[in-house]
Design goal:
One of its GO terms (molecular function) is DNA-binding transcription factor activity. By secondary structure, the chain is mainly alpha-helical. It contains two helices and no strands.
């Protein structure tokens, strides 16, 4: 059994309702993706700035 299966099981047990647990999980996954996307944008912008400074 994978860790994500255990997390899903715990979410269902916590909510005692499969639909609410799934909704909560989707919201959490979406928020994590936004954090990753934001971090990637910052990395790309930093890289672009460094290239422009190094090669004016």
């Amino acid at each position: 059994m994978e860790l994500r299966h255990l997390r899903h099981f715990l979410a269902v047990a916590d909510e005692l309702h499969m639909g609410r647990a799934a909704e909560k999980r989707l919201v959490r996954d979406y928020e994590q993706r936004l954090d990753v996307s934001e971090a990637m944008i910052h990395i790309a912008l930093g890289s672009l700035m460094l290239r422009r400074i190094a090669h004016p």
